Amino acid sequence: MSLLILAYAIGFLVKLNCGSRVGSNWNQSCNERDKQALLSFKESLSDDTNYLSSWVGDDCCAWHGIGCNKQTGHVMKLDLQSGYLRGGHINHSLRNLRYLTYLDLSNNSFHGIRIPKFLGSFKDLTYLNLSHSNFIGLVPHQLGNLSSLKYLDLNGNFLLSIDSMGWFSRLSLLEHLDLSDMNLSRATDWFPAINMLPNSILVLRLHDSFLPNKMPHHLPVLNLTSLVFLDLSSNQLNSSFPLWVLNNSGLAHLNLRFNFFSGLLPQSIGSLTSLLELDLSDNDFIGPIPHSIGSLTSLINLGLLRNSLEGLIPKSIGSLTSLSELDLSGPSFQGLIPESIGTMRSLTILDLSSNHLQGNIPRSLGNLTSVLELKLSSNSLYGLIPESLGTLTSLTYLDLSDNKLQGIIPRSIRNLTSLSILLLSNNKLSDFPLEMGNFTELQYLSISSNAFRGSLPQTFCQSLELTALDASDNQLTSIPKCIGQLSNLTDLSLLSNLWEGVIAPSIGNLTYLSELYLSYNGLRGQIPDSIGALTSLTVLDLHANYFSGPIPQSIGNLTALSRLILWGSGFDGLIPESIGNLASLSILDIRENNFNGSIPQSIGNLSSLSKLDLSVNQFHGLIPQSIGNLTSLSVLDVFSNNLSGEIPAEIRNLSELTYLDISSNEFGGCLSESFCQLFKLQHLDVSDNKLTGDIPKCIGQLSNIESLSLYSNSWEGFLSEHHFLNLARLAVLEISSKSNLIWNISSDWVPPFPRWLLTQRRIHIITLQDTGISESILADWFASLLFMSSVEDVDLSNNDINGEMSLILAAPSGLQRLALSNNRLSGDFPSVLCNITSLTSLLFSNNNFSGELPLCLGNLLELRDFDVMNNNLSGVLPASFGSLGNLIYLNLHNNKFQGKLPLSFQDLKDLETLDVGRNNFSDTLPRWTGEQLPNLKYLILRSNNFYGTIPTQLCSLPSIQVLNLARNQITGNIPPCFGNFTAMIAASDYFYDPYEPHSSLRDGEAIIDDPKGYELNYTSTLDYLISFDLSYNNISGEVPRELMDLHQLTNLNLACNQLVGRIPNKIGNLNNLESLDLSENRLHGSIPQSLSDINSLSHLNLSFNDLSGRIPTGNQLQTLNDPSIYAGNRHLCGRPVLQPCEDETEPNNVHDYNEPESDTERLWFYAGIGPGLLVGFLGFCGSLHFIKSWRYLYFQSVEKVFDKYWSPSSYSI
Q1: SS3 of 144, please?
Q2: Which residues are listed as membrane-spanning (predicted)?
Q3: Strand duo 824-828 + 848-851: pairing
Q4: Is the bond preceding residue 754 a cis peptide, omega within 30 degrees?
């Protein structure tokens, strides 16, 4: 209640008490009849607190709460407010108090009874207060007989209602009416009745009274002109601002909060110059704040929150110099903050947050020396923080976050020693002042998402009361060593910075720490053992750093920990058994590290665990059986490890499991039917393992499954309708087998497959590779998919599907990827696909398509991958290919295309793979491949009819990894600038991401190359092929020395050309070379000894040149001992050819010693031969003579040999 209302109430009560006496010396004792009436009334009450203990004796005028007339002794006042009295009824004897003028029964508990009708008989009653007394039912109309009543308060009786308010018009002297917190929903005449009250009414309170929405905007006749206090808040009134209110020029308190008032605020609101409180918050007012608001110079409280006000904040608002709080947060004010706000020196709270304010923070705000809270967050303020804010020495809360402020924090900030909360996050601040001051009261500091660099000032460590520090997302490079002094810290976030070095052991001093975030930094070394001292820790997040070593054993001390997040941080070693002590842990995420060894058995102790992510590590061995104890687990992910053995049957105990991914491991055995007990499972991925046997039919009972991935295993048996029976929520279906899985869906199944897919309303990925689909059902598939707007990815490759796709007349409009490679599809390329403009990938390799590619392919503007390798397509390539600006992979290998490559290809700026090998193209080598295709990695033009010289523009391909121009008609020299191929010089910074394709190719894509003389199919291993092939052309000149700088080359093939000169001496620099072929050229001179330095070399061919001298030996060359490697070089000598070098005495005698043999050694050698032969012969003959069985066996063998080779039957005529 405002001060005004309090003053009014006190004055009113004093006026009512004149002429009465309460508990003082009386001239007349109380009236006996009145006393008996009071005693009877007392008997009807329960007085648990002895509130009426004074009601004894003869003089009732001396009793508590009783006031009497001095002359007559009649009771005039009965005041029992807040007596905690209870009663089942109000005794009728009370009506005998005929002279009663004041009755207050408020704040008692007359639970479940109605207001007595006889109260309407007190004709002299001027004050009636029955508030908060739990009366129920209808207010009796008899109260309208209280013609002398000035004060009526019925508020807070929630079960009390009024059905009609016509009787209020008889209360002609009423000054105060409070019907708040009642039910007036049936009183449809409430407003006309209120308007009929005399103009003496000063206070009208109808807060939360369920008022019917019937209040006129304007009244032709208005009696309500003397109001001082009007409260209509928390109703559902829906109209524009009630202009009749403005006729009450003396109005001091106006509360319209929590309604549905709408429209503009009237300019005439400035006429209410007596207003002390104005609350219009929580309505639907729109437009600007009227400039006339500045006329309300007496205003102390102003509430405009949660409307739709907008526009500029009027400068006149500065005239509200008595205002203590100004909260304009949340609407859509824009423009500048008025300088005039600096004149509002009474302000203690200024909140302009969450607007669209711009410009600088006014310096005049420094005049608000009484302000305690200053909130300017979530605007578009820019520039520097003004020094003048340093004068606000009473400030306890400063929030400038979420703006565009920049520069250094002003030095004057150190004066704000009373600050307890400082929020500067999400700006562009870059520097701290040299002295930040001693914020001894500071409890919460947030400077996140700025451009701070260097180190946090040491002075922050003096803020010993600090409980929360957030310096995340900056460019800070070091953590102050003194941070361990902030022993009251509960929340510490330093994530996303440039922190380097190690975590200091002093971190263990922060024993109250509850949450610690250090992720996305450059932290190295090991986690200190002192981390185990943080026994209050609930969140430990260190992911995305460069740690090494294992998790310390002391981690087991953190028994309050609920989240342990260490993914992608370089940890290695074993998981400590002590991790089983973390009984409160709900999330354990250590994916993408180098952890190895077995998963500890103690992990089964984490009974509160809901998420366990061990993916992308090097764990091996079995999944421990204790995993079955984690009955709260909803996510289990061990993707991409080296786990083996059978999947433990204990997994069936994980009844809460919704996500299970055990893919990319070495699991074997069968998929147990125990999986079918995981009824809540939504995601199941067992792909890329060594699972065998049948796919359990009961998989079809997992009705909550949304993603089912069973591909890349060795399934056998049949795939029938039972596997899909109750799968009604599929979004992803992926099945393939490396073995003999047979598609056996019954034709009697209703609906038949693939039309069953129509029942899957949310499916977007369908992969059924290697599943033995062999019928000509493609038209049925597309007819089914046509009605599935959600499907995005269809992969039916590696089956035996046949038929002509040209028969397909329609296709699903939202399709993004279609893979049909390795089937027996034939006919023309289906032009209907040109209508699916959402397509990003078309993979049709290894089929029997014929004819020309349609011109309409240029409509597929989103296409990234196009593969028709190994088909029978022919004709000229359509120029419309140039429209496919997003194309990355284009493979036309091994078809019958002819003509020239379209010039429009130069518009394919994102192209990384271009393979047109083994076709009939005839043209000069296209220069634009080097000029216009800067991202090209794989350029394969082999086995065509390209001619002319090699354009030097190809040297501009910095990313090229495979360049194959073999088997064409190319002439001229090899450009020396080929030595500038960056990707062939230095190893790429390729970051292995297990969630992305393992190579530059995506699933289903391939490149065929022949680095060792025979074709190989490259998919996931393509990134390891760095190849340069110009073989079988007419290239002349020397081998450029610059090629020896291509250190990453794995294949260099220059065979069958007209190259001359010597093999470069630095060929040993190609230390990654696996295959080298320089055969059938005219190279001369010696083979460089450095060739023996290439330890990875496994294929070498230098034949048919004019090389001479000794063949180098040593290292890997020792294993390449096939003489054909050097055939056709007559002047080569040494191993492995038979030609001895001039300094050798015997062709194939290589001595292990340098000294020549002496004559004595030769003499002893020949002297030993004779006796040795004699002893051996005598031993043989002696054995035959003395051992009868040996003698028989020997002669039988001799006879058999004689009979076989010398008998007459062995000859034929």
Answers
A1: helix
A2: 1163-1187
A3: parallel
A4: yes
